[in-house]
Amino acid sequence: QVQLVESGGGLVQAGGSLKLSCAASGSIFSLNVMGWYRQAPGKQREWVAHITSRSSTAYVDSVKGRFTISRDNAKNTVYLQMNSLKPEDTAVYYCNVVGAGVPWGRGTQVTVSS
Q1: Quick count: other Cβ atoms within 10 Å of Cβ 26?
Q2: Cβ distance 82 to 89 under 8 Å?
Q3: What pLDDT shows up at residue 62?
Q4: Which one of 9, 13, 64, 114 is most buried, counting C-beta atoms within 10 A?
């Protein structure tokens, strides 16, 4: 069974940066679209970005120009570089294999103070 472990979250001031990592077990990684999602307190989980096996990317409008998703297939790891962070980016961030029904990991908390 594929397992996903997110890391790299923390507390940062507005305007700061963080880089999240997601390590995935299993051979599914290199063949699939990987996505980052987030869930803010009291809100539903939302899609943030995804990256295809050929490294094509897409982003939700609210993070375009500030976040960058990347992947290292040799390490079965996907990253999310987050710059110019805003308080509204505060959430638990999760990664997943898009459309594959993989159980969610624990996520990593990102808190942006104003």
Answers
A1: 12
A2: yes
A3: 98
A4: 9
Give the 3-state secondary structure of residue 81. Answer: strand
CA distance 63 to 79: 15
CA angle 18, 20, 26 (to 5 degrees): 170
Query: Which residues lie closer than 8 Å to 71 by C-beta, 6 or more apart?
Result: 34, 51, 55, 77, 78, 79
CA 36 vs CA 4, 13, 105, 114: distances in Å: 11, 21, 12, 23
The first and second tokens of residue 91, run together, are: 């959430």
The arrangement of strands across the sheet holding 4-7 comes to 4-7, 18-24, 77-82, 67-72
Q: How far apart are CA 30 and CA 99, in angstroms?
A: 14
Average pLDDT for 44-69: 97
Please give the Cα distance from 7 to 5 (Å, whole number).
7
Half-sphere exposure of 74 (CA within 13 A, CB side): 0
pLDDT in tens, 98-113: 888 889 999 999 999 9
